[in-house]
Amino acid sequence: MADTHEKEIDRISGVETTGHEWDGLKELNNPLPRWWLYSFYACIVWAAVYWVLYPSWPLISSYTTGVLGANQRTEAIAAFDEGVAGRSEFADKIIAASLEDISLDQELLQFAQANGQAAFGDNCAPCHGSGATGAEGYPNLQDDTWLWGGTLDDIHTTLLYGIRSDHDDARIGEMPAFGRDELLSREEVAQVANFVASKADVETEDGVDLAAGQVLYEDNCAACHGDSLEGIQEVGAPSLMSANYLYGKSLDDIKAQIHAPRNGVMPAWIDRLDAATIKSLTVYVHSFGGGQ
């Protein structure tokens, strides 16, 4: 059949029309660029080749495996197993070595630092901060104030069993609620609080009997915090000589802690993390510089 369509040139664009028209709109005969068509055809060819070489088509209970037999899931599992095997080798060495030996062996130390850093970010940073600088109620691990000691062994024990946790071997040290339980009167709480504040360079109240506060301190607090307010690590009692306190540094904060103390809880990690990870955490935390 002869083509009866007469070529018409659009007067605005100067392009030939195809003869198709919808509601006065005429279709222009603008073919796709050759480079685009060639790219499209190449994609079709590549897709056909991919279907043959790699897994692609789903079946009823499986899928086509492809000529190459490639499987990213299998490769990922193999890479994971290889990583676990490599980690296990070092983990076994970490478990067998003492904390001192780990800190002296450059290869073990490097592994422990990397492993400990990852474990710290996952388990410890929510409380102690990503930089281990702590927050109100959570100790700063970069300074030299350690309630239960900052040696490698001390840190390891704290990590294993926690503080006031539900583990039988947890470190336990609780301060009595002198005000709430009426062990001291409101006036006596104020006196001993002002006495402690005066030793920690915290502003005190006018007219408070500091001598009476000292007597109250000696009778009620010195057994745990020491005669000179130096603290006793064996019972987890902090030094009161500087206002580096967990629950605030003002006189009101000191009063509140004496009246009804807050006793924080650290979980025991012995049943949550493996032995190698706990040792790695110990070395990592000790490396912050605040350890002893």
UniProtKB/TrEMBL annotation:
Q: Pfam families attached here?
A: Cytochrome_CBB3 (PF13442), FixP_N (PF14715)
Q: Name one GO molecular function term.
A: oxidoreductase activity
Q: What InterPro entries does the record point to?
A: CcoP_N, CcoP_N_sf, Cyt_c-like_dom, Cyt_c-like_dom_sf, Cyt_C_IC, Cyt_c_oxidase_cbb3_su3, Cytochrome_c_Oxidase_Subunit
Cytochrome c domain: residues covered: 111-200, 208-289
User: What are the record's GO terms for cellular component?
Assistant: plasma membrane
What pathway does the UniProt record associate with this protein?
A: Energy metabolism; oxidative phosphorylation
Q: What is this protein called?
A: Cbb3-type cytochrome c oxidase subunit
Q: Which organism is it from?
A: Roseibium marinum
Taxonomic placement? Bacteria, Pseudomonadati, Pseudomonadota, Alphaproteobacteria, Hyphomicrobiales
